[in-house]
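ok so I'm stuck.
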Amino acid sequence: MNLSVKGETLIKGYEKCRLKAYQDSKGVWTIGWGNTYYTNGKPVRQGDTIDQHYADILFREIASKFVGEVNYLVQGINLKQHQFDALVSFAYNLGSDIDADNIAEGLGDSTLLKLIKNNPEDPQISCEFLKWNKAGKKVLDGLTRRRKSEAYLYTTGEVNFFD
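replied:
not stuck anymore, here's the structure
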């Protein structure tokens, strides 16, 4: 599957585009549409600037990486497009956690993914999105709104930005 317009709208609605590097809620240098690294793998640094054209290219390339990783994680699961989009948004923000450990650091080792693999229509899935609303052990309103939006997209197929 590929990321649809709804998925891109959700991601960009929460990331906002910034052409000058800034520190995110965890102090990580970020640029463009919430990117912490460039396509060559180099991290964003303080003082970095880009133009809108490059920000959009960077978004497409980084989003494409997460599309591939989510496709890998959900192999054999019959997902609807909007469910896939919600998972890509989640991974874009938190990571896909494709590694050899069992520590839930993103989508790969999460209970969210386990529930989806067991039954992608399980009503508990919405609650699992909402558990991922902390940065540095602090609940952040912006992450709570984003998780609500991802859960809403996953269950209804509609994009909604919660206040």
